[in-house]
Predict the structure of Aspartate aminotransferase.
Amino acid sequence: MATRASIFQGLEEAPADPILGLETAFRADPDPRKVNLGAGAYRTEEGKPYVFRCVRQIDIDMAADVNLYKEYLPIDGLADLKKPTQELLFGEDSPAIAEGRICSTQALSGTGGLRVAAEFIKTFLPKCKTVYISDPTWPNHPNIFKKAGLEVEYYPYWNPATLSINFEAMKHTLEAAAPHSVVLLHACAHNPTGMDLNEAQWREILEMCKRKQFVPIIDNAYQGYASGDIVRDGFSTRLFCNEGNMEMFVCQSFAKNMGLYGERIGMLHIVCASAERAKTVLSQVKRVIRPMYSSPPLHGARIVSRLLGDPHAKQAWLAELKELAGRVQGVRATLRGGLEAKGTPGKWNHITDQIGMFSFTGLSRDQAERMTKHWHIYMMGNGRISLAGLNNSNLQYVVDAIDEVVRAVPSGQSNM
């Protein structure tokens, strides 16, 4: 039978995703010493995936509930999610909640919320043509906004020479941005650097956003996971909403802080100037969602609703979340201590200055490549590692690897 020409003949194979591709390479590596420090998911001390105890109990309860069905959700998701997720973000005493000024819709975790926000901005906010994103950032951020047809620019965030936030350069770039620009901000546990603005710096950025009529999008992926404290990690979001009275978008994910990675459960909240505006905005957000995915997933939504709606379940979750965040903080201290005890060239205090799941180690791309090829330690090329992948059985091995790599490839290390 003759082979006919394929309509896909000119299509080239896409490069592997920089994060998900690491998982594939790790699984294919037969070396028993291999360590996966690329995955953005919590791992136990035994290196295994983790399901929150409170989540598992809710799953058991739902499985036994014969009155639960599998019908479609409305376009904007489970109604019972709206108020408790708003209160988690903005605080129970938020004026915006009391006045009905927040339009909320269930979203496909953080990525889905960002994409819906991007499509909404492109469709309905013609003055907002450009999105400013931190450099560095989560690799998927620019793709989301570019695919929606928005222009993407970057503001400096990280100073590789000092391994700290480059706040003056950040302000300088944003001051030069056009009015009505969209500014994407990380609520806490900045990915990948793990370095957050302090309260005074957040207030400066808020003042600039108001003065220049910027449209903030706050990506809230790690609330409670950064410090172990929901309120502390919610500072920036509450500041912009409750004190700043900003109209803004907030994308809320429960992948990390409830361990619901595969459930794809999150929320998109849009803070508006009035309840009337919020009602109008919601009507148009639903028009954006309908041809995109029509209706969000049900199972994860029920888990979050039950967890936040039951005071006892909520307290159990907060305690468990604090426990997990504490383990990651302990790993930070141990990693830094191990490198300093070994006399590894460079300064390593930035490891404990950072917060959240990731550490921006300061290793160069060449050093990261050697970590993978020589030591079978899988990590991002920009030097980011997931601390949740470290435990008592592999931490010294990783310390030894970093020490050897820094000595073998010294020219690329920025913190020496």
Observations:
- Residues 18-51+315-408 form a domain with the Aspartate Aminotransferase, domain 1 fold (CATH 3.90.1150.10).
- The two ends are 64 Å apart (CA to CA).
- The chain has two domains: 18-51+315-408, 72-309.
